[in-house]
Amino acid sequence: MMLKAVILIGGPQKGTRFRPLSLDVPKPLFPVAGLPMVQHHIEACAAVPDIREVLLLGYFPAQQLQQFVADMIAAYKIRIRYLQEYQALGTAGGIYHFRDQISSGNPDAFFVLNGDVCGDFPLQEMLDFHTSLSTPSLITIMGTEATRQQSTMYGCIVEDKETHQILHYVEKPSTFVSNLINCGVYICSPDIFKRVGEIFNSRQDFYSCDDSEGTETIQLEQDILMPIAGTGQAYVYNNDRWWSQIKTAGSAIYANRHYLQLYHKTKKERLATNGPDKPTIIDDVYIHPTATVDPSALLGPNVSVGKNAVIGAGVRIRESIILGNTTIQEHSCVLYTVVGWNSNVGAWTRLEGTPCDPNPNKPFAKMDNVPLFNLEGKLNPSITILGCNVNVPSEVIVLNSIVLPYKDLPRSYKNEIIL
Ligand SMILES: Nc1nc2c(ncn2[C@@H]2O[C@H](COP(=O)(O)OP(=O)(O)O[C@H]3O[C@H](CO)[C@@H](O)[C@H](O)[C@@H]3O)[C@@H](O)[C@H]2O)c(=O)[nH]1
């Protein structure tokens, strides 16, 4: 069998809730557990022996992805290419536009993965399910359970419990439809192009040079899944492993924790260990080999330290992501915070945020993508984020705040956005 995988990475206008972190690097390249977000997708695809080529599909300028793609080819030894849409074509529009590249070599099927989800993706198991179906599936969706309340933020699937055929699909319904939600991971038969082509052609009548009405975009969810549901050609594969979206910077902290945990199963060598002349490590921590961490520092649980970062004596960090070329000076404390690239945090300073984890008392709860401000116009407590090139002086406290790039903070801050 020969398969391909397409990863939908969007473009500069997407991922706005991820700012200010996506101001400096395309959101799909933001490091989580030491790796750019979509490297986790590529790694999951590379582990499926039948996947021979991975195509990243988006509308970021190609030069922003060039180095990353070269690094990925070197690391995983499979074909990887970036295909650039000339504008946002929608979740199925890009696939249709590049159908020749996807179909070349006659793959039996191809995976499609949303670039902004994370998880312990059971791709091989899903493939086994897809190929074992007695009637061929045009599209198989990975589904997972959500709470009744949260389900309406996702694509909702009603299945035949015995055959797993999809009877009904609604994208982000306004009232409850089903607890079973779309994970944004699919296996498509190449026959899907015919379907998308029909939609494409039916819209040509409306096509004009001014595409302000978005007639050129085709959405996989609304235009393909909704009409296919109930025709016996779409199936759902139930995923009971960890899965989440990465929409906000807060969800990056959550994803960081879970990917670090996953390394126990997949890449143990990426996790830092305790030893003489090494910092003290609590549970799961990733330290880039080029980072310098003082042996008296205490890191963990759930910390990632990027390239060439310098962590001083007596520093305490937990539940945080420290990006490349950042310095944290002695005795500072960093909790539930993302510290952007090339930043400098003085000595005896405290950076602290508030976690936005899923409710542990509710089974199947996902993260809430809490808006920045509440109804009274006050900033909702969230993780603290420092954009790149931020300078925080010594002996201050920055609590539940978002600091935009290139700021020189003069004092302490609490619950503020510092522009
Ligand atoms: N290449 C490309 N990618 C795109 C485009 N539009 C969106 N994407 C990418 O496609 C993914 C989904 O995009 P959204 O449009 O933001 O959808 P969503 O709100 O995340 O909902 C989708 O994902 C949920 C799971 O996370 C699903 O539950 C839901 O049904 C839907 O598929 C993201 O990775 C985004 O970057 C486009 O025009 N071109």
Question: What does the model show?
Answer:
With 419 residues, this protein is α/β, with parallel strands linked by helices. The chain folds into two domains: 3-245, Spore Coat Polysaccharide Biosynthesis Protein SpsA, Chain A (Alpha-Beta Complex); 270-418, UDP N-Acetylglucosamine Acyltransferase, domain 1 (3 Solenoid), CATH 2.160.10. The strands form seven sheets. The chain has a seven-stranded mixed sheet with strand order 5-4-1-6-11-8-12, covered by helices on one side. The chain has a seven-stranded parallel sheet with strand order 14-17-20-23-26-29-31, with no helix packed on it. Strands 15-18-21-24-27-30-32 form a seven-stranded parallel sheet. Strand 4 (51-58), helix 2 and strand 5 (79-84) form a beta-alpha-beta unit. The chain starts with a strand and ends with a strand. 45% of the residues are buried. Guanosine-5'-diphosphate-alpha-D-mannose binds at residues 8-10, 14, 57-59, 85, 88-91, 94, 114-117, 154-155, 171, 181-184, 221, 245.
Task: List descriptors.
Spore Coat Polysaccharide Biosynthesis Protein SpsA, Chain A; 9 helices; binds guanosine-5'-diphosphate-alpha-D-mannose; alpha/beta; 419 residues; 7-stranded parallel β-sheet; 7-stranded mixed β-sheet; UDP N-Acetylglucosamine Acyltransferase, domain 1
